Amino acid sequence: MKLQRRDADVMEGILMRLMELGVVALPVHVSLVCELDFAQYVDQIMRDEFAKAFLKTLELRTILISNSKQDLVEMF
Description:
The chain is an alpha+beta fold. The chain has helices at residues 2-21, 39-54; strands spanning 25-28, 31-35, 62-66, 71-75. Helix 1 (2-21) runs antiparallel to helix 2.
């Protein structure tokens, strides 16, 4: 249960920092979906918040989600 709380706190920290930058990201379980243009910000903030909480580095996978209107990425 404590690990789930820490995980939720990490995600909250990530989303709060992104909101301060005006970046919209949609949390989906343990991943985030964002516009392709903001992927590098999301990547760095996810790594920073994870390292702060768990004192470890985070390996991220990125999937391009493309449609006719906009390119998105999912990071997990």
